[in-house]
Design goal:
Blueprint: E1 9-12, H1 21-49, H2 56-84, E2 89-91, H3 92-125, H4 130-133, H5 136-162, E3 170-171, H6 178-183, H7 190-223, H8 227-259, H9 267-274, H10 276-292, H11 294-315, H12 326-333, H13 335-342, H14 345-352, H15 355-360
Parallel strand pairs: 1-3
Antiparallel strand pairs: 1-2
Length: 362
Amino acid sequence: MENSTHFKVFRLAAYGDIGQMKYFNFALVTVLYFVIILANALLIGVICIERSLHEPMYMFLCALFVNQLYGSTGLFPALMFYLLSDTHDISLLYCCLQIYVLYTYTLTELSNLAVMSYDRYICICYPLQYNNIMTPKTICGLILLSWLSSFFLNAINISLSLRLQFCDNVLDRVYCDNYSVVKLACSNTMLNNIWGLAVTVLYISCIIFPTIYSYVRILQICLKSSKETKQKAFNTCTPHIASMLNFSFGWLFVIIQSRYETAHLPPILRSILFVYFLICPPLFNPLMYGVRMVKIRHACKKLVNCITTEQQGELSSLPSDYAQTDAEWDLWEDPFCQIWTLGPPNFRTAVSLTIFLKYLSS
């Protein structure tokens, strides 16, 4: 009988031995993770609390930010752990769990961006029917479909990978990706390849092409419209297009690097480009949408005003020492401020000190 070793533990070789630089890298990754959590959580909270943002476009944005928190959690804790660890081994089960989280994040992100393009298409091309088409039931259905379809498709993907036997265990990556893991298998991978091709074709036909079609139709309508309509369409569509291009660039490099030789690139550059789609979209999307979207910017200003008003009230030693104006009483009657004041003091203090929120309100 032929002797062979079937590995159940993989080694993430891309970390290498970077000496004392690991502490700097750890600090940098920790700051990035904190900023991503803070930025996305703040905008999720603002959208959920502010009634004027309870519209389809902002609900889809909220789903996008939730997904970005989910995807970041699939990368950053493990990345921080392995940067400080002397060993970079990862079990097959945890490797598959990481693949599942990161791949569901990827497919859900693409689906969310496609749904957002569809929303803009209906809003600009069929404005009179918009409210009849984009009902709360439709919004919930589209968001659930985006999440559940990616969960289901990737569950099949992982089940196909778990049945394989592996005769090598070295992954030249900082995290597990399905294609690299399957390449280490010494058993038959035909089913994995067929399924991967089928999912790719499905998403290109059902996600990429409809998204391109939506923006082409929007462009055609805008060319025939007034200057004001063009400006409004530009302001709402530019962040969506930028998000799609930003994410697609990062994911395209992962596909190219997985299937073609990129050894001529410096290892550090390969690692950065390999995590680009997991870091840059969650980091820059909240900032971009917060700055470009007028309603979100105004909601952030309202939150800053609530914080400022509350802090002024806390500084008063006696109720008579602080005379509120009619405008300030109107501000406190706003449900946004009422919910804010009910929050834990530590949470309110942390939010009030965030540079991100102050930047959005400028």
